[in-house]
Amino acid sequence: MLVSTNSGVVQLQSYKVKKGQSSVSGLSSGAFMTVQLHLAHSASFVGAGIIAGGPFRCAESFREAALIAEDAFIENSLYICLNPLVPQTGPNAGKLADLAYQTAKQNLIDPIANLADDRIYIFTGSKDEVVYSDVVARTRKFYELLGVKPENIAYHCDIPAGHSIITDNPEDSELGTNQPPYINNGGFMQSHDILKHIYPNLKPAAQNLSGRIVRFDQTEFFNNEERASMSPFGYAYIPKAVEEGAPARVHIALHGCKQGYNYTDYVFGRADKSNQPPYGNRYFTTTGYNHMADSNNIIVLYPQAQGSDGTTENPEGCWDWWGYTATNAQEPDYYSRDAIQIKAIHAMLERLGG
């Protein structure tokens, strides 16, 4: 069942949200961003769901890959963090864990000790041809090296899924598909599994939704700066009970590349709006988060990235996990509390009350 969005654009409101009980999940670039956001603001979160994502600062695995830092990060992202030629050339979890500790000591992210009791869901489809399973396995090792209890990590690698978030919607792509909209039918709602792992003892998902999806002005959270590569609007699902004053938690759901509501294909550097894909709102309406959230008084926040083939060189509308938003390409801050996208998303969480 779909919920029609509020026809207007509203300002994001505050609710009775429990402090420090929020969580975050994402697919692909949204998964890489999930790891970054989780570490940057670990005091705010109790768990994370990572579908096809690599470790923290993965794009800096081998900074000597090119003479120019910007080129090195791009080469790292492609040939180490997405599809390494052999497992041995994948990201080094130990090195990146050490880098995370160093980053925390510099006070650029929250203390690593906050992660100890967090609950982590990690998934890689065995037929994923975009982010190889070897990379995602290093994400599991990375969290273990940061002190997360092994029993708190749910690691899934045996489902023959392509690069996607999985649903039980019959109209979605076949399970092994590796192409947009990256939402595949595997007979279960992966979003439900993520939320149930992070928050044990949840009630079953609602059959019918009581709440509403609100469309809010995102630009106030990043000062409408072009380099943020974020869309004018964001979305949030607000259960009716929460709107009426019930205590709530917040889950942030981060879409992957080409999944934002206003994704537009670029051809030769120009927006091809005449052939715009018709699936822009599916991540926040059909992936199942809202039904589980509705019966458990969870607000689901859906920030939106957008593509640009100009200043940011981000034509596929990915979240920044390799430094395209940086003002200093030699020392990008895409992973820190001061990163423009992380700062914006966390400000949305604070506005909600979390």
Query: What gap, in angstroms, lies between the N and C termini?
Result: 28 Å
Based on CA atoms alone, the radius of gyration comes out at 19 Å
- Total helical elements: 8
Main β-sheet description = 8 strands, mixed
Broad structural category? alpha/beta
Specify the overall morphology: globular
Instruction: Give the integer mean of the pLDDT values.
Output: 93
Percent in strands: 15-25%
**Low-pLDDT residue spans:** 1-6
Biggest sheet strand order reads 4-3-2-1-10-13-9-8
Order of helices and strands: EHEHHEHEEEEHEEHEEEHEH
Number of domains: 1
What is the helix fraction of residues, given as a range? 10-25%
Using DSSP, what is the number of strands?
13
Task: Please summarize what this structure is.
The protein contains eight helices and 13 strands.
Record keyword descriptors for this entry.
354 residues; alpha/beta; 13 strands; disordered N terminus; three-stranded parallel sheet
